[in-house]
Amino acid sequence: MARLSGLGGSCSAVAAAAAIFILLVNTAAAQTVHVVGDNMGWTVPQGGAQAYATWATGKTFAVGDILTFNFDTNNHDVLQVQRSSFDACTSSDAVGSVIMTGPANVTLDTAGDHYYICTIGRHCAAGQKLAITVASTPGGPTTNPPSTPTNMIPPPAAGGAPDEACAPAPEAAGPTAMMSPPPPPSSSSRAFLSVLTVAAAAAPLLSFFWFN
């Protein structure tokens, strides 16, 4: 019985260890490290803020993922802020403290929209800012750039030419159509008319001989 009890305890320990190992493997597999800007790093981009918006477009960020900001200490920093501060490039509505030592690793611990800026000089105004959407689980929604208004077709100027869709259709080119003369009577019609003419001419003669 002692051996069976010991064997059961060993099996339980192996099962527990296996469960912990699987959990660790799943956690490691679910965690993704995103290098912000890839080779560009965290700097003032030449293309303005659109450069980081393009980098984030189509990527999936989930809780537990890590953002790596590659920058030189004393030249740049990174601060998470609210949307209002992100738009105005101010640090008034900060989330946490400024990270001044690069490279910096930031763990995404909450779902929702996250905003990051550089607070040095006018770096943020020049485009050193990042906005992403973080999903609660891997495979959630991807980050998309801000929507832009649809281009509207301008109305025609007052007194100008009418819209092409409303203009009258042009007349077909070519000579003016002419009325065709009526077709000549057929041979049977001409024969019938000749008989009637002869009969009309002969009617007086027939009447003369009939009554005399």
From TrEMBL:
Q: Has UniProt tagged this entry with the keyword Cytoplasm?
A: no
Q: Which InterPro entries match?
A: BlueCu_1_BS (IPR028871), Cupredoxin (IPR008972), Phytocyanin-like (IPR039391), Phytocyanin_dom (IPR003245)
Q: Where is the composition biased (Low complexity)?
A: 158-177
Annotated signal sequence is 1-30
* Alphabetically ordered keywords of this record: Copper, Disulfide bond, Glycoprotein, Membrane, Metal-binding, Signal, Transmembrane, Transmembrane helix
Q: Which Pfam families match?
A: Cu_bind_like
Q: Where are the transmembrane segments?
A: 191-211
Q: Where is each Phytocyanin domain found?
A: 32-136
Asked whether the keyword Coiled coil is assigned, the reply is no
Record GO terms (molecular function) = electron transfer activity; metal ion binding
| Tree of life domain | Eukaryota
* GO CC terms: plasma membrane
Pro residues bias located where?
A: 143-157
Which parts of the sequence are annotated with region: Disordered? 137-186
Spell out the PANTHER family in the cross-references.
BLUE COPPER PROTEIN, CUCUMBER PEELING CUPREDOXIN-LIKE
In Swiss-Prot or TrEMBL terms, this protein is called Phytocyanin domain-containing protein
